[in-house]
Amino acid sequence: MCAVAASEVSLDPTVQSFVGEPRKMLIGGQWVAAESGKTFEIYNPATAEVIGHAQSADASDVDKAVKAARKAFDEGPWTRMSPSERQKIVWRIGELIDENTEKLAQLESLDNGKPISVARAADVPMSADMFRYMAGWATKLDGKSISPSVVYAPGAEWHAYSRREPVGVCAQIIPWNFPLLMEAWKLAPALATGNCVVMKLAEETPLSGLFLAELMQQAGLPDGVVNMLTGFGETAGAPLAAHPGADKVAFTGSTEVGKLIVNASQNDLKRVSLELGGKSPNIILNDCDVEKAIAGAANAIFFNGGQCCTAGSRLFVQEGVYDEIVEGLANYARGIKLGPGLDPETQMGPLVSQTQLERVTGYLESGKAQGARAASGGGRHGDTGYFVDPTVLVDVQDNMKVYQEEIFGPVVAATKFKDFDDDLIRRANDTVYGLASGIWTQDISKAHKLAARIRAGTVWVNTYNIFDPSLPFGGYKQSGWGREMGEKVLDHYLEHKTVCVGL
Ligand code: NAP
Ligand code: MG
Prior knowledge:
With 503 residues, the protein is of the alpha/beta class. Helix content is 39%, strand content 19%. It contains 16 helices and 20 strands.
């Protein structure tokens, strides 16, 4: 049994038994154990207690899963269904997510540590919406009629057109920061376009993905169309990324592992899409609405405990409002209620794991050693679980590690700038990443000038961390390759075929 404290929501009985029993993996429509018999422990990050067990897949399980996906792709019925039948199934997955909101929110909160209030209001409904949005595309994947422009032979005529066809078997590898949402971002477009999938869930957070796989079966997804694996990056992720039977690999995670994925895909030139890290600049100008900018800067860095690839972790504040903004942000940080995700009052949960706790506190030590000062927070919170206090670092220099590297925790590095000029743009762009950015100003002209010059895939103006299934999302530079969501993501999952007919 998974014990919860008195202040926490009482667990749904389905969730209790789902967590309490060792979970199996879904391969070819069957729930199976790893061939090696190996399992690993699942932790509650709020308490560091073991709450369950999952299968540790290795190369032989990966091989089985890829073959199951290949069979489903080659033999149907999935790939022979009409677009509207496929649309109905993908839509139904979204409906089932909605119908299971509380169970999914509890699983997500237990496994990842995120506040249940956030899981209910954001992770779960946004995942459902992603499936419904992508369901609509299933019936709109038209090719084009093309008029050949050059006549080689006098009198000859051709009729040409393009077809858009699924890529085939897609390997998908996801991280632990938004497990359900990352499953939705990857699975929904792959399915709407008629592909088959082998997904490897993050070892830290396998629960919601396994539950979602059950919902997909209920929705009528044929066997083998989605195969759901649990296991570690080195033993399950690496053989999946390198498997010659996968036509494509879609990865979200660290830039470091993203490069390994590219290497692994080289042998057979798989299609690759990557959603990687960030060190996003959040820029506050003198003429901002100060109250909104403070709340916005806090949301930019403290949402999900800073475990967001888009985290606004480099804060640039113009001289005239610097003191007010930094003091306001530090006060805001001190007011955030930390606690277990399952406590409805909790505003920020623990980090996901002991590894992340050590990584983030290591950065805090390095910042202090290099001369930065914590205006709020600055270290671990309490001595149970993996909590870190929301931290605002000041006296930060551009060459410090806390300013340059992705921390992936609730830590913002604040710096001051004097003028709205080229030097500000240079500093904002002075990073190997280019995922997101924020601008806070009431001057519409400055907002658009900055938006054009920031080298990042998303620019938020007077808002932050707004995602929508219709808005393409992805990175410049080492933040990744390609865009997820919106119409743009369909290109990842479709081949274009040209058909030319001599008349
Ligand atoms: P990660 O190692 O990049 O993990 C992402 C996914 O890749 C996980 O499923 C992981 O498996 C898998 N993986 C790891 N090594 C692999 C390999 N050699 N081949 C194929 N797959 C592999 O990220 P992490 O270790 O969880 O976190 C480390 C840092 O990555 C964070 O501190 C943060 O900076 C960054 N990060 C970024 C994002 C993002 O959305 N951009 C998300 C998460 C983390 P297992 O974890 O199961 O071993
Ligand atoms: Mg990892």
